[in-house]
Structure to design on (250 residues):
């Protein structure tokens, strides 16, 4: 009996992809991925060949080997699994000059595939993207920093005061701290670390993507030099803003 359905599901989860994302990569309908994984249908040969190409497998292994049992197998099996997982950390990079194009092409697999990629060995399997930020609204994070974010699928998973890259129809790509709006359930509040910038609200309907910041990459010596008084003033101003916001939200 073929293990194609079980292996397909295992390999997809190994990369941290949703069925929709996997379907886009295979250029098939999402419903077909579900049918294959639930063994209601057998994958077509061309689909299996694509899967084998992505995960560097032989067709024989994909069809007849139970890949879920390779974790404790031989050295070669473990090496193969590490290689399959490795590409799950592939990060698509969105530089400032590509931000406008990303607004229209973020959901287009062909556009996303054209973005340059890099990897970070410390990342767990998941879906990541990197965004170059410009300006001083998030100081002390300097302009030109690259924010590596992990995809957030549901707005309910947002954590107050954490930093996110938010892609919205009206504001474009923004790197901010997020506060859920308790009075207006369909809005979130975006806050700059630099207190000179006022917080503002974004409608949940306008949010296209959200990426939770997990790493910040910046050039050596790029961070501004602050004295103690400046830092104390910024912290006090930020605390006042957050307190005011909390009162308004509650």
């Amino acid at each position: 009996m073929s293990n194609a359905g079980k292996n397909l599901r295992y390999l997809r989860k190994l990369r941290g992809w949703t069925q929709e994302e996997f379907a886009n990569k295979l250029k098939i309908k999402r419903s077909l991925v579900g049918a294959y994984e639930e063994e209601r249908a057998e994958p077509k040969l061309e689909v299996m060949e694509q899967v084998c190409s992505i995960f560097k497998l032989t067709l024989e292994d994909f069809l007849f080997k139970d890949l879920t049992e390779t974790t404790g197998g031989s050295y070669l099996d473990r090496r193969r699994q590490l290689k399959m997982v490795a590409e799950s950390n592939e990060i698509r990079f969105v530089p400032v000059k590509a931000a406008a194009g990303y607004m229209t092409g973020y959901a287009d697999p062909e556009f996303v595939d054209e973005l340059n990629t890099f990897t970070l060995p410390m990342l767990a399997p998941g879906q990541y993207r990197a965004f170059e930020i410009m300006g001083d609204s998030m100081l002390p994070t300097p302009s030109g920093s690259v924010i590596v974010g992990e995809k957030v699928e549901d707005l309910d998973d947002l954590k107050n005061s954490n930093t996110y890259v938010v892609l919205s129809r009206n504001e474009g790509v923004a790197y901010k701290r997020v506060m859920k709006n308790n009075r207006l359930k369909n809005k979130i509040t975006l806050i700059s670390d630099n207190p000179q910038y006022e917080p503002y609200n974004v409608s949940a309907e306008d949010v296209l993507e959200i990426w939770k910041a997990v790493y910040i990459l910046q050039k050596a010596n790029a961070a501004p030099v602050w004295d103690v008084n400046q830092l104390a003033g910024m912290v006090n101003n930020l605390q006042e803003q957050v307190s005011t916001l909390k009162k308004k939200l509650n």
